[in-house]
């Protein structure tokens, strides 16, 4: 099984490479996506580390002057009509560099420091010369990674509590998660936008698996509002209709700071600023996004200061953080093992994206029920951080078996395990390589 899965995953990554970057899939996602690039680099470290560094560099060459890393960088060789919303819709101001290709004005979870450290760690295991070359790559990336973190912890702290806010569900990476339903209910759904602008996603995927038209109209409206304000982040809480603090996004933000502690040690920078920032973010997540009544982490609407009632997979992600209080880590494990999610011991499958017992649980519709490998990979990493090694190994085995049986799909049916969405999906392939090869505990947890 291992050899077959390794070879098939390597083939997907070879087929999806496009000049100087990786596409998530050839038909549905023909450009470069931000947090996809991070997951993909982790897998490429095993088969083609040169491409792993090139993919990260390619993304950060499109970094904005304010430090934001766009959630999509457009491939100029792909016709505008092949993907919507494309560069014309986003109308991002020119600012030099690779941005001439066009990008969006949104961000995605900043997993890139974690990815860079993992690629370096893999290279360093191959000897001094490989470590030296990888160190040069880290030196190029380090100031750009720092700028990304400073943008998110500074300009995006709309609530003033030390947490980064997302201004669009797409920024979470969990696009149509029920975690956003309460906040999105206040966003106008102008369905006339769908007559002015044609959706492309449902031309290449089953509409029953994708966000609804109402959701999509709201997505477009949020982009237009942000775009018409020149993508500025001032006064977000009162002038923008969706401003939310996500436990997953902020956990990754803190994990990135912990990875930067390691990277700073290689490039000769001060690691303590990153250690302190990681602690501050962890404390803010613990204080503001944890619901003690239900012992769960939830997203918070900055505009209303209320927690989402939905129990979603993003609430399990604070397990990534070694500084999380023990009782909260235990609560996450209890939630993951409950009938709402179900660890492989109960279901034989990785965890779904949403509470299985919820009346609106949907086994087909994107982030409203299906299983995703990337968040399960993050959950497994969190289990290792907090010493749940048996559970982490069970989850690793379940992910490997699922992908081997069903293929490198974008996501999977949470009951049958059938592959759904785009086939030959890059991050599923990349993370399969890592799951086959690496069972170590993250360095920052070992040092804690």
UniProtKB/TrEMBL annotation:
GO terms for molecular function: Glc3Man9GlcNAc2 oligosaccharide glucosidase activity. One of its GO terms (biological process) is oligosaccharide metabolic process. SUPFAM superfamilies: Six-hairpin glycosidases. The keyword Cell membrane does not apply. It comes from the Bacteria. InterPro entries: 6-hairpin_glycosidase_sf (IPR008928), 6hp_glycosidase-like_sf (IPR012341), Glycoside_hydrolase_63 (IPR004888), MGH1-like_GH (IPR054491). Residues 29-428 form the Mannosylglycerate hydrolase MGH1-like glycoside hydrolase domain. Keywords: Glycosidase, Hydrolase. Belongs to the glycosyl hydrolase 63 family. This is Mannosylglycerate hydrolase MGH1-like glycoside hydrolase domain-containing protein. It comes from Actinoplanes friuliensis DSM 7358.
């Amino acid at each position: 099984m291992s050899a077959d899965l390794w070879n098939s995953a390597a083939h997907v990554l070879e087929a999806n490479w496009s000049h100087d970057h990786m596409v998530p899939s050839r038909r549905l996602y023909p450009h470069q996506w931000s947090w996809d690039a991070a997951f993909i680099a982790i897998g490429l470290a095993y088969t083609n580390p040169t491409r792993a560094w090139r993919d990260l560099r390619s993304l950060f060459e499109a970094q904005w002057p304010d430090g934001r890393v766009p959630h999509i960088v457009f491939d100029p060789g792909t016709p505008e009509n092949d993907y919507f919303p494309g560069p014309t819709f986003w109308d991002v101001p020119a600012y030099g560099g690779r941005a001439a290709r066009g990008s969006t004005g949104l961000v995605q979870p900043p997993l890139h420091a974690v990815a860079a450290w993992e690629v370096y760690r893999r290279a360093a295991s191959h000897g001094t010369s490989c470590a030296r070359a990888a160190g040069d790559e880290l030196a190029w990336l380090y100031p750009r990674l720092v700028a990304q973190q400073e943008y998110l912890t500074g300009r995006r702290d709309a609530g003033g509590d030390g947490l980064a806010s997302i201004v669009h569900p797409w920024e979470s990476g969990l696009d149509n998660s029920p975690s956003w339903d309460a906040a999105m209910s206040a966003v106008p759904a102008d369905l006339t936008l769908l007559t002015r602008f044609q959706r492309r996603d449902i031309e290449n995927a089953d509409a029953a698996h994708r966000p609804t038209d109402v959701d999509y109209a709201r997505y477009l409206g949020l982009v237009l509002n942000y775009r018409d304000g020149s993508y500025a982040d001032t006064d977000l809480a009162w002038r923008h209709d969706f401003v939310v603090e996500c436990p997953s996004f902020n956990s990754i933000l803190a994990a990135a700071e912990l990875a930067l502690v390691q990277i700073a040690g290689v490039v000769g920078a001060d690691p303590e600023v990153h250690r302190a920032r990681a602690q501050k973010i962890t404390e803010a997540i613990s204080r503001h996004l944890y619901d003690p009544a239900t012992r769960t982490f939830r997203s918070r609407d900055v505009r209303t200061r209320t927690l989402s009632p939905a129990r979603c997979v993003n609430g399990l992600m604070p397990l990534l953080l070694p500084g999380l209080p023990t009782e909260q880590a235990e609560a996450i494990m209890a939630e993951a093992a409950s009938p709402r999610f179900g660890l492989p011991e109960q279901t034989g499958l990785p965890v779904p994206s949403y509470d299985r017992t919820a009346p609106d649980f949907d086994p087909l519709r994107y982030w409203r029920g299906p299983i995703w490998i990337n968040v399960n990979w993050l959950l497994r990493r969190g289990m290792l951080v907090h010493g749940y090694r048996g559970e982490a190994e069970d989850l690793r085995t379940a992910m490997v078996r699922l992908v081997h049986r069903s293929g490198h799909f974008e996501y999977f049916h949470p009951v049958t395990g059938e592959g759904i969405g785009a086939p030959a999906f890059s991050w599923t392939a990349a993370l399969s390589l890592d799951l086959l090869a690496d069972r170590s505990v993250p360095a920052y947890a070992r040092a804690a």
